[in-house]
Amino acid sequence: MKEFDYIIIGGGCAGLSLAYELEIHKKLKNKSLAIIEPREEYKRDKTWSFWKVTPHNFDDCVKKNWTNFSINITGNTNHLECNSYPYQSIDSGLFYEKINNKLRENGNISFFNDLKEINSENSFLFNSVPNIIKNHLNLWQHFCGVEIETESDFFDDSIYNLMDFDCEQRESVHFFYTLPYSKNKALVETTWLSKMVDNSQKDYDKQIKNYIEKNLNLKNYKITYKEEGAIPLFYPLNKKERNKINIGTAGGMTRLSTGYTFLNIQEHSKYIRENFENITNINKFEIAKKYQFLDEIFLRVLEKHPEKMSEIFFKMFEASPNTVIKFLSNKSNFFDDLSIILKMPKLIFIKALFK
Ligand SMILES: Cc1cc2nc3c(=O)[nH]c(=O)nc-3n(C[C@H](O)[C@H](O)[C@H](O)COP(=O)(O)OP(=O)(O)OC[C@H]3O[C@@H](n4cnc5c(N)ncnc54)[C@H](O)[C@@H]3O)c2cc1C
To answer: From edge to edge, which strands make up the β-sheet containing 160-164?
Structure first.
């Protein structure tokens, strides 16, 4: 069986981001890499959005940048600016195509559907398949989104809606977001933060239709694309091993209070590339401990008081948008953190702290 110096398990966002980062920095010139990916073909399946707080390799896969956004709770809307950190949406179809075209140029890189097809005993592994034992206690962030097109102009594409809580909550946390790519095209996505053990809650199609027709007041449109999935709002098992590094969601790159993962994946890829020659000895790359701690408290509040979360998010954005963006994107300083913490309802957070 064939052997490789390196193996990436899972050719999704993290696996391909890492392979690309290594390839463009010529780290695979004299080394062999196998990428294990079960899917038969790559097609657009996700939209990754984030505030651009740091440079990344995929500006040419961005569908749109926005510098204005809004957040809604029932009866109240806040309009905000993000000129310093534009919000970007990456089209996964363009991302997969760009990376796969680049990787094909290097004969040292091979793709397989299953790890069993090769001998992995002596290789260094980068694993992006999370080790999760599903149970009823864990919180997940569920996504379901549709891209819609209208015949005539309908959307204001100069502003996106980050969170609209004006929808059914069902004892968990539920909001919609709308990303208008042009005046007649937008992604409308629903997100539930919940344990979601009851399948009857998964009436995404009905929820989205209802939202488009009632909240957006749009009747004539066609759906051109759909995406669906869930990410764990807890850290999958991620122990340090001599010949293996977990990456992506499996490697703890999801910010638990928000689900944002894409830019953390890019920073992790860069860290691995910078330390590639010493890969067996590097320290584990983590989201800073202070965010892990604050997110844990935040999720405790979310579990205990889901009905308060819309107000909490809304209040958080009463701080300066740049401060909130930096905080939610792991780039805040002590004073930014303090100004966010002071916006939070004190009693329930203190109780959650001592739980
Ligand atoms: C619908 C959706 C929308 C999201 N939107 C955002 C967003 O807007 N912003 C943001 O920052 N984050 C977002 N996320 C979170 C996160 O960025 C994505 O989940 C991202 O794809 C995580 O990358 P990953 O490589 O860890 O996982 P994936 O991209 O899921 O890659 C894992 C890969 O492993 C493969 N695989 C599975 N089983 C095996 C196996 N046994 N052996 C080998 N390979 C296997 C899969 O086919 C897949 O290709 C979103 C997630 C979802 C689900």
So the answer is: 76-81, 68-73, 160-164, 173-182, 185-194, 140-149, 222-232
β partners of residue 227: 145
Residue 46, classed as helix, strand or coil, is: coil
Distance CA(149)–CA(210), nearest Å, equals 16
Does residue 258 sit within a domain?
yes
Instruction: Answer for the pair 127, 245: CB distance below 8 angstroms, yes or no.
Output: yes
- For ligand 1, atom 48, name the residue with the nearest CA: 12
Question: In the predicted model, is pLDDT for residue 259 greater than 60?
Answer: yes
CATH number at residue 125: 3.50.50.60
Q: Kindly state whether residues 312 and 267 are assigned to the same domain.
A: no
What pTM did the predictor assign?
0.96
Nearest CA to ligand 1 atom 30: 12
Distance (Å) from CA 142 to ligand 1 centroid:
13
We report the CATH number of the domain holding residue 195 as: 3.30.70
Cα–Cα dist 210/227, whole Å: 18
Q: What is the pLDDT of residues 89-148, one digit of tens each?
A: 999 999 999 999 999 999 999 999 999 999 999 999 999 999 887 777 788 999 999 999
What is the residue range of 212's domain? 140-232
> Which atom of ligand 1 lies at the shortest distance from residue 247's CA?
26
Give the span between the Cα atoms of 307 and 288, in whole angstroms. 28
